[in-house]
Amino acid sequence: MTGPTATATSAGGAHPGPAEGLRAEGIVKRYAGVPVLSGVTVTVRPGEVVGLVGHNGAGKSTLLRTLSGAIRPDEGTISVNGGRMQLTGPAVALKAGISTVYQELSLLPNLTITQNVFLGRERRRGARTLDGEGMRRAARDLVDRFGLRVDVDRPLGHYPVATRQLLEIAIATERETRFLLLDEPTTSLEGEQVDRLLELIRSLTRESGLGVLLVDHKLDELYAVADSVVALVDGEVRIAGPVEETDRADVIRAIAGEEAAVHLAETGQYDQLPVEELGDLASGRPQGRRPVSALPAGARPSLRVRGLRAPGLTDVSLDAYPGRVLGVYGLIGSGRTEFLRALVGLDRIDAGRLELFGEPYRPRNPSHARRAGVVYLTEERKVDGIVPGLDSATNIVLPVLHGFSRYGVLDRRAMARSATRFMDQLHVRGDRDAPVVSLSGGNQQKVLLARALAQEPRLLLLDEPTKGVDIGVKTEIHRLLRRLASEQGMTVVVVSSEEEEILDVSDDVVTFSHGRCDGGIQLASELSLVKLRQVAWGAA
Ligand SMILES: Nc1ncnc2c1ncn2[C@@H]1O[C@H](COP(=O)(O)OP(=O)(O)OP(=O)(O)O)[C@@H](O)[C@H]1O
Residue ranges of the ABC transporter domain (predicted)? Predict the structure, then answer.
C-alpha cells in the first residue's frame, strides 16, 4: 500500500474486529504554516506492534505526540475502538488507555524507584497513611517482571540511563494501558537489554493484547518485533503494510534515499539487512568492507595513555593516531564512557601517564581540555547542554563565542555564517532560526556534533555519535568523521555500543572490558562483527 491514506494493518495478533484499535486518520499538523504531518493515517490494533520509521524530522515524534494528547492536530481525527476522541491533553489520553514513553525521560532522579512508580497515584491505607510496604512490594514485582536488578528504595538517579529507560516503559505498562506509544526506546540500551525489551513488547502484545506503536531507527529491531511497518517521509505515509510483505530495501530507499541505500549496499556494511537483499539494492553483489590502510611504520601517536586509573577504569593503555579514527568498543560497564570522561577532566585521574601531541597531559576540566585541543561530545544530548530556547546557530557557536567578539560586540553575521557552514555539512533539517528544541531529536544531535566541530578540535572524542540518527544521516556522519581524520589530520575517537558503527567508522579498533584496555589495536578491515563481539564478550 502506498500514499498518504495508506493504513497499517497487520496479520496475526488477537484477531481484532475491523473498527478496533487506536486510529489516527488524516492527521495534519503545521508549525508556522509549514506542514509537518500531511494527512497521516495509522491504526494500532490490540495485540499488534506497528513499527514507525522515517528520516530525522519526518514527523514520527509529532505523530506520537498527537496520539498522546500532547499536541492538537490541525486536521484529522483520532478514535479508539471506533469512538471518536477529543484528546485535549495527556491526562485524557492516559484515561483512554494511551501511554507514551518519549525519548526524553520524565521520571524524577531524586525520588526512589518506588516513589517514581507511584508518582501521582500513591496507594493509601486509610485517609492519611501511605501504604509504603504495599507500594514497595508492587514496585519490586514490577522491576522483577522487567528483569531489572535494582533496589526499589534507592533514588532512581543512582542508576544508568538504560535502567531508567526500561523503568519508564515498565511504569507505562502499569496504568491500565491499552495502547503503548514508544519513541525510540532502545537508543540507550544495548545487546541483552534490547533483546529483553523486544521480548517484553512481544509478550505484552501477544498475551495482554496491548497495542504498540514503536518508533525505531534500527530496522533489524523493528522487523524482529513488529507486525506491520509504516514509513513516514516528509510527513506522509510512504509505505505501510505487514512486515512479511514489506521489503526492507524499499523502506531504506524511502527513508535514506537511493544514494545512501546504494552506498549501504555496496559496502555490505548494513547487517540489519540480509546480504541477499543488499545485493538486490546495489547493481552487483556487496563489495565487502571498506579497506583500511595499516598504521604506517614509525607513526607517532597524538594521544598516548599508559596505566590510566580513574573512576570506572582500573588499567587502560592505548594509543590514538592523527589522521585516523580509533573505535573504542566494549559492553556496558566496560569503562568506555569513563575513559572519555577522564580524558576531558570530568572524572579525576588517580594514576597513569597521559601524553597529548608529545607533551604530558593532565586535564583539569573540559575547558582546560578544550584549550589543549580536546573536544568531547557526550552521549547524553539532553544533559550535554543544548540550550533549548536558543536557535541552532547560537547553540553551535556558544563555546566559541569569544572568537566572534570585536571590541566586546558580537559579530552576528560571522557567527551565522560559521554555524551555517557546519549545519550544511551535517544536513541539519528543520527551522534553523527557531529554538533548537523544535528540531527533531536526530537533528538536535547533528547540532551538537556541529558544535563540537566548531571548536576546531585536534582530538575529537565522541560517545555514541549517531544515537537517534536515521540510517541515511548515520552514513553521512560516518563519512564526515573519516574525512575529518583523513583530510584534516584530526584524531577521532569514537565510542560506540554498535559493532556495525565501530567497523564502519574506524581505522583502528580497541576493546574495553571491566575498566581495562591493553592497547592492542586491530585494523577495522580485519575484523568482522562476529569477531568483534567475540573479543569483547570473551573478555567480559
Ligand atoms: N514545537 C515545534 N515547533 C516548530 N517545529 C517543530 C516543533 N516540533 C517539531 N517541529 C518540526 O517538525 C518536524 C518533525 O519533527 P519530529 O520531531 O516529529 O521528527 P522525527 O521524525 O521524530 O525525527 P527524529 O527521528 O529526528 O526524532 C521537524 O522538522 C521539526 O523541526
Answer: 22-259, 298-539
Distance from C-alpha of 272 to C-alpha of 269, rounded to nearest angstrom: 9
Strands (E), 262-342: 303-310, 313-320, 325-330
Helix (H, G, I), strand (E, B) or coil at 240: strand
- Burial letters for 53-82: b for 16+ Cβ neighbours within 10 Å, e otherwise? bbbbbbbbbbbbbbbbbbbebeebebebbe
Q: Read out DSSP for 71-98?
A: S--SEEEEEETTEEE---SHHHHHHTTE
Q: Is 440 close to ligand 1, i.e. is its CB under 6 Å away?
A: yes
Domain limits of the chain?
A: 247-288, 303-539
Q: Given the CA of residue 58, which atom of ligand 1 is nearest to it?
A: 21
pTM of model > 0.90: no
Atom of ligand 1 nearest to the CA of 431: 31
Q: Are 244 and 67 in contact (CB under 8 A)?
A: no
Q: Which amino acid is at 62?
A: T
Write down the CATH number for the domain with range 303-539.
3.40.50.300
Specify the DSSP element, H or E, that contains 454: helix 441-454
**Average confidence score pLDDT of the chain:** 84
Report which protein residue has its CA nearest ligand 1's atom 19.
57
Q: Which residue puts its alpha carbon closest to atom 27 of ligand 1?
A: 441
User: Number of helices (H) and strands (E), helices first, in the chain?
Assistant: 17, 25
Gap from CA of 234 to ligand 1 centroid (Å):
10
Q: 110: part of which helix (H) or strand (E)?
A: none
Predicted confidence at residue 2, as pLDDT, reads: 36
pLDDT in tens, 11-32: 334 455 556 899 999 999 998 8
The pLDDT value recorded for residue 3 is: 37
For the Cβ of 58 lying below 6 angstroms from any atom of ligand 1, the answer is yes
Return the ligand 1 atom nearest residue 217 CA.
Answer: 25
Q: What is the pLDDT of residues 409-467, one digit of tens each?
A: 878 888 888 889 888 888 888 888 888 888 888 888 888 889 999 888 999 999 999 88
Q: Is 56 in the pocket of ligand 1 (CB under 6 A)?
A: yes
